[in-house]
Each structure stands twice: as C-alpha cells, then as structure tokens.
Amino acid sequence: MLRITSETGHRILCVRKVGDSLKKSVYQLFTDLIEMYDLHSEFIINKTEKTFTHLRTGNMILLAGIDDPEKIKSITGITSVWVEEATEFNQNDIDQLILRVRGKTENYKQFIFSFNPIDVDHWIKTRIESIECIEIVTTYLQNAFLDQEYIDYLTGEASKNKYLYDVYVMGAWGSLKTGGEFYKGFDMAHNTGEYEHDPGSALHITFDFNVLPYVTLNVWQIEGLWAYQIDEILAEDPMNSTRGACVLFKEKYPVEDNAGLFFYGDPSGRHRDTRTDQGFNDYDLIYKELAQYHPVERVARAAPPLAIRGQFMNSIFEGLEPVKMFISKVCNTTINEYNHVKQNAEGGKLKEKVKTESGAVYEKYGHTSDANDYFICEAFKTEFDTFKKGSKDLKASEVKVRNQAKSKY
User: Fold this and answer.
1) Longest C-alpha distance within the chain, in Å?
2) DSSP for 267-292?
3) DSSP bridge partners of 65
C-alpha cells in the first residue's frame, strides 16, 4: 500500500491459485486497509473487475487467479506481483507470472510471496535457497490483529500436534508425517538446533559415495556420548567425486585449525571401481587428499544391516539410548531426509528413483542419512553392539574410558 500511494507508474498484480478465493481474502484485505486508514477519497474501487486505482498517482492494484490463464495473459504493464498462499502454486505457474513482469519501469520490480511453510520438501524452499531474496519470518506473536480466543486455540492445538507447532507457532518449515517413515523417531523440535564448529575438538567426517545427485560428506563433532552434525558438504557436478568432496572440505576446514580428523563411510568404498582413479579405492583417495590432517580411518568391515541400524537410530532420536545426536539447522538436506525417507516392506529404506533432465536416474533420498548411519554405528560401536544384543545396559567404566580417550583429540 505504501508503494501504491507514494510512487508512480505501478500496476501491481495480486494472484491466488484459484480466482474465486480472492474476494474473501486479498480483495477484503485491501478494502479493510482502505477503511482502516480512511483512504476512501483516494481510491476508486471497481467491485466487478476487482481493481483498486489510486487517484493521485494513477497506480492500480489488479486481482486475478492463475486458474484463468487468458485473463493473466491479457494483463500488461505489470511492475510487481504479490503471490498470496504461494505454496498452492507450482513452478510453472510462477515462471508464467515472471514472464508478465517485463520492460523498463521507473521503480524497481518486486515479487512478494506470502505463505505458511507447510512442507520442508516444497519447491519454494529450494528456490529461496538458490536466489537472492529477503526472507521475513513472522508468527502469531507479530500479528496485532489476532484475538485472544484464536491465540488460545492455536497454542492449545499446537501443544498436541508437532506439525502445527512447527509451522503455525514457530514459523518453521514443517514436515507433515504421512506414515511409513524410516526415521520415525526423528523430531525437529528435539533433534535439531544451532551447533557450530569447535576448533578445539576433533572433526569426524562420514561419506556416501553416490555420484548423483552428489557425493556426501557430513561433518560431525563428538562430546562424550553426544554427537553433533555441524555441516553437510554435498559435492555436486563437477565436484561429484571423492576427490571433489575432499577439496570442498579443505576449503571450509583448513588444516591449520585441525584438532584431529576421523573418517567413516560406506564400506563399499574399499572396492576399486569406475568412481575413482585406476588403482585407488575411495578411502585410498581420502588418505591421499587429506594426508596433511593425519586422518584416522574408522570404516566398518561391512555395512550394518539396514533394519537394525534404523531401529538403533530411531531409539537414539527418541532419547532411549545413552548416545545422543543432534543436527545443525544449516544441514537442510540431512533434515529433509530424516523427515521424508520411507520404509520398504523389508524394514529398510525405500529408495525412490528420480530422473535428471538428461535422463540419468538416481535415488532421491538416502545419501546423507546413509552417511550418518555409518558414522553413528561405528563411532558408537559399543552401544550399537549392545543394542543388537537387546540390552540397553552400558557399563559406566566403558563410558568413562572412552570419554577420556576422546578428550585428548
């Protein structure tokens, strides 16, 4: 409204996915604002066309639904767009709107997306992370127009429903559980947080060697029986190789800050194959690339069985084990996996397949979480072996000795 009344040369388009929903939402909002600020004399409101024209500047606000593509195409001279309830739109819808905003204008062009962050896997989240934009997060606490009855209802319902709490109380990207998740115990409220690199503590890095969509290198630190994932390095093309992942790691964690380095990962990386240089396996290359860190290998002889390691991870997430693990909120891909990886009929991970534009097929989920499975099951081998035996008891002396050994790194 400020730009409409203070600048000139504007035709601002406000859109919803379905045009019929505009009358009770955006149209009503603008009429309420005009009423609130006593601006009746400054605007002409066309109820039929649902347009608002500011008399002094000549600026217009136009409303349209993307479900009427011919109407959208007929609107010209658009200078800015407000996309209300943006999560209702697909990427093609937005691309078509972008095409409507073209040509020179005396003021800057602007796209405003307003929405509830309903799904951490939504395309909008990925798009936001890949472009330059300003992200403003608000919650009910910033909304002065809510009555106490609504606030009490919202907070009361959210206390019983984690999804409602994440999205509508905290303003965080939510994950709507649909059933069949592999990591049933994962809970963003309890298993994620703000965790940064401690230069005085050793780094633990863990690999998954799939080339597509990336080679995974997750970065962890350990404090006693508590483990913190502080970073995820996703080596995409053209760096999607073991060497490429190590190069990216060295750029972020210089050797002069090294307080010890341990590496873990998929045991199949010991095989020589076409992923690596002739005569080398993945772990040979890791030793070679990270030699100046004097790394220590902690790779299991064989991958732990999927079903049992999944049960172990879920038991950790649920707080039933002496081991505790936490994921930094900067590790978006890892968190996304924990929210979305499904379980197959055998109790393992359901490996959903997707295609690239060139037709290459790869697994959508499972890479960062696999790397973490290898790390947790090997770094806390005593606890994992105890879990496999069906006993949760851990001798206090074992914890004490192991903690003392780790404290020197």
Assistant:
1) 81
2) GGGGS--TTS-TT--HHHHHHHHTGG
3) 16
Tokens standing for 248?
Answer: 């990216």
Residue 304 CB coordination number (10 Å): 19
Cα gap 92→254, rounded to integer Å: 42
Q: Who contacts 20 (Cβ-Cβ below 8 Å, separation ≥6)?
A: 65
CA distance linking residue 389 with residue 73, whole number of Å? 66
What is the pLDDT at residue 176?
64
Contact present, 222 and 406 (Cβ < 8 Å):
yes
393 vs 363: CA distance, rounded Å: 37
Q: Are 241 and 275 in contact (CB under 8 A)?
A: yes
What is the rounded CA–CA span in Å between residue 285 and residue 278? 11
- Render pLDDT for 92-121 as a digit per residue (tens, 0 to 9): 888 888 887 877 778 888 999 999 998 877
Ordered by where they begin, the domains of the chain are 2-115 (3.40.50.300), 123-169 (no CATH), 190-407 (3.30.420.280)
**Omega prior to 238 cis, within 30 of 0:** yes
- Percent over 70 (pLDDT), the chain: 92
Strand pairing report for 43-46 and 51-54: antiparallel
pLDDT in tens, 333-383: 998 889 889 888 878 888 888 887 778 888 888 999 999 999 999 999 999
